Amino acid sequence: MTAITVIGCGPAAHRLVQRLHHHGHRGPVTVLGAEPEPAYNRALLVSALDGTLRARDLALAPFPPGVRVRTGTRAVAVDRRRRLVRGDDGTEHPYDVLVLATGSRAVLPRLTGAGGRFVPDVRVPRTLAGARPVGEGPVVVAGGGLRGVETAYALGRAGHHVTLVHPGAHPMHRLLDERAGALLTAALRDAGVALETGRRVTGVEPGRAVLDDGRSPAAGTLLLCTGARPDTALARAAGLAVRHGVVVDDRLRTSAPDVYALGDCAEHPGCQATLASAWEQADALARTLTGGDGRLRPARHVVRPRLSGLDVAVLGPPGALRRPDGGEQVVLSDPARGRYGRLVLHDGRVHAGVLVRLPRAVATVGQLYAADRPLPADRLALLLGTGGEYAESAELPDTAVVCQCNNVTKKALEQAWHSGARDLPAIAAATRATTGCGSCAALVRQVCGALAPA
Amino acid sequence: MSADRTEGATAGRTRGAATTVSTHCAYCALQCGTRLHHDGRAVEVEPSPDFPVNRGRLCQKGWTAPALLTVPDRLRTPLVRRPDGRLAPAGWDEALDLVASRLTRLREEHGPDAVAVFGGGGLTNEKAYALGKFARVALGTSQIDYNGRFCMSSAAAAGNAAFGVDRGLPFPVTDLAEAEVVLLAGANPAETMPPLMRHLARPRLVVVDPRRTRTAEQAALHLQPAPGTDLALALGLLHLAVTEGHLDKEYLDTRTTGFDAAWQYAVAWWPERVEQVTGVPVADQREAVRMLAEAGRRYVLTGRGVEQHSKGTDTTAAFINLALALGLPGRTGSGYGCLTGQGNGQGGREHGQKADQLPGYRMITDPEARAHVAAVWGVDPDSLPGPGRSAYRLLDALGTPDGPRALLLMGSNPVVSAPHAAHVGRRLAALDLLVVADLVPSETTELADVVLPVAQWAEEEGTMTNLEGRVLRRRALLAPPEGVRTDLEVLHGLAVRMGQPAERFPVSPRAVFDELRRASSGGRADYAGITYERLDAGEALHWPCPDENHPGTPRLFLDRFAHADGRARFAPVEYRDPAETPDAGFPLHATTGRVLAQYQSGAQTRRVPELMDAAPEAHVEIHPDTAARYGLSEGDLARITSARGSTIARVRLVRTLRTDTVFLPFHFPDAGRANLLTGPALDPVSGMPEFKVSAVRVEPWQERAT
């Protein structure tokens, strides 16, 4: 039986091990996690930070029976010749198949004054430890990418005094175009977040964060959301091919035999470093390792920030909004209500787009995009979420069925009326209209009312 | 307008002086109260003004039900397939002798499991009970199941796991009228059981359905998930109930177990993720949870829409989890329930037609249950077979080397109603012997070697158990036509011919019911205290009713759930995709369902002229944009094709449909069978087939000139 060792205990590793079990793998499985906690849901760390959920609420379902999980053990070396992994606690873990799921590593700014007395509580909210609820006092969030925006917005709404410091012209500037960025800026302000755009955090001093223009907003807590890059140290040391991440092919194979990589640490041309991609890769790899067809067919995913009460979606490859490439463009802009939608279509299908405060379109277009289906003909109705409403015609045709339960047409009602059935019970006795669910009573009255002499 | 008055063919069939009886409708699980009147020439129906479920109301099927009593092609004599391959009339003795001798021989040559039995959720309690007993005692076979497997099995499995007992509605339907909010998941009662809607007029409705049904049109909020994704939606609603602070912690602590394990899956279903999987906007998810959480009296109800999937049990369990998290079940004025479909869909699943059950909702693997039932039947417990195959697996095994070689079928038409229908037809045709008892010719009787004409609604006495677990008396207005026997008489005739003592298979429904009472006594569905006398005196009796002084149990769980520790159980369930998702070759979802004017396989309703006027032929609902893309217009014939086969249906453009989905009703025969498309994927727990999702393509179809 093949012994599988997985380095990393994040969502990709967790999903992989669950799916291995699902597909019938019963050989030994070992999971090495550097963090002390069992696997938990990283996507929800913001909810732990703002106090919506407790840390224990984030725990993922237990691993299948028989899986050896060593939390608090960081893998420090891979011995490919002897096929074993060494942990920082001196343990050795043999493998037949090795899976790297080491995730990503935060990119942190060099901060002046760090380590001094009374300086803010500086944290990277990418782990359970970094995402413990923030205390009293103002919060500065450094970095206004997706994670920084979610963090600042949630804390602002939870009543914290929050400053978001972002080097770009507007938050999430790599993903959003200018109009969407302006709407997001306004929404953050409404949530109580002060914005410092075009700025970076360069240091800390007692009770404050220091910006690159010398100003220093008050800070009890400084949260660093300044990006991440694939954690490839172990792979590099083991001599695997690494570019930005560990290079993998469509079967998640690295350059070394029997060594695979997936999730944020891996680099596959069709995938972005998202949770959805990591899960998809785990599903594919589990199939491969159990003898099935594990070729990865990356699906298209929508970037859907978790901003309570503010629906934002970004579709398409990064940067596609800036270079629409001549496709058909559909734009809806309603600044007074903060609504904005822009879709770039190729061949009637979504190539790229951004949607703000168009909740129905976010849901519908997201699905059409993911499945690469053609959009409905009425693009405006689609964006406004009003597609499919029937236009109420003023005059019902004779053949219109008024009572669905008993298939009674308007004509039949009129005949009954002319035969002397002048009130609801008489109409019901003559035609059975209203005797099913009863919901047509008002319409029946209306039809008969129109026949009564004025 | 006079099909509620059927003249002619019923003259001379009244029983004694009785020309008016109080009974219940021929069709669905509402079992609307009706009064049937015969004036010597014709039968009239009127809804009972005082039966609380319908209180003076009926749908078109109910109003036109008397037409069933005079259908021109009523089976009136047994038919036996002759050497020339044709079904020809035969006498009862000839037919029963033939069936009994061939069943006996097959059993002797190949063992008792070579003969199988297939029942139906429309059979009375007495028939369902007698059929199960006939299979286990007279045939000794484990191979019995019924079409309710295609109907209620997922809800039953989830309900039993959560509450320790499965009664569709553990409260009277009239309680719903007092509610403030009702969430209907995969149920379309405005079309499938219209009189129920009077109880849903006051509450604000949250309707979960991929289609904008007539029920959805009446909803305060309509959630329109992609077919096959309701489980993700239910997980997401539980997630929101927790993150928005609506968890009823005291209820969780005192009345439930297992929340933490269920949460470990729901935690990963945050609303934005649910939205991208289901297509239900985050704002609508939040609104649904808010509406439910903030109402004082609220219910969660499920229907076939969420249950008829290869993950139907888990989906139903996920909606139960939501109800438990909000503290609804077992609380006055709130609760969870499932809307049972077939006329006796509740009673039919309690008394031994199911492959794994004995009467009283006992499990056939439980030694105590076997001992109790064997004692009532006067047989050795060890002589009772073990559990058999569930319905689709049973049909799939027919005529195979390891499968049954003969099948006795009562009250079902699987050639139309089973999934992968063409395959099921081939399996039935591969049998050595197919015996079908029915009142009219059906697509299944056409394949039979022996057809036995049996009595129907309004020609027989018995009991039905409606969707509330209330036991009702079905009464005979007429004698069956000349040449027609009751199902109980058929079973008696066969059993005696196969060497059973005559008294072991009584033909009187009352005698059978009295035995059923003893057999169910002490079981989960305990009918011991329910008698024809009490029912005839007008008592409203919901099971369990353990003795004759017991008032019955209209509301279950108010003090405790039926598990030994009294607690309800959360189910740890995770989402999975349907067995089939659209791809380049089959780019659309097809989902199947019902229309108001037809019932089940249509064997009855397709013989009622007024109903055929309303819904004459197979149709396919499709969004206008999708239709245009595939070259289809309103009224065209379309060919819809899945990996199993094709069906032909008339195009109906529906603007409110999702553009990725088409809908087909399954009531129609021959080339219009929607179940030619559906697949063999089954729920691993309940055996429920995946009726609600297939991947298909659509194209124009030209009628061939003949």
TrEMBL record, chain B:
It holds the Pfam family Molybdop_Fe4S4. InterPro entries: Asp_de-COase-like_dom_sf (IPR009010), MoPterin_dinucl-bd_dom (IPR006657), Mopterin_OxRdtase (IPR006656), Mopterin_OxRdtase_4Fe-4S_dom (IPR006963), Prok_molybdopt-oxidoreductase (IPR050123). PROSITE patterns: 4FE4S_MOW_BIS_MGD. Residues 18-73 form the 4Fe-4S Mo/W bis-MGD-type domain. Keywords: 4Fe-4S, Iron, Iron-sulfur, Metal-binding. This is Molybdopterin oxidoreductase family protein.
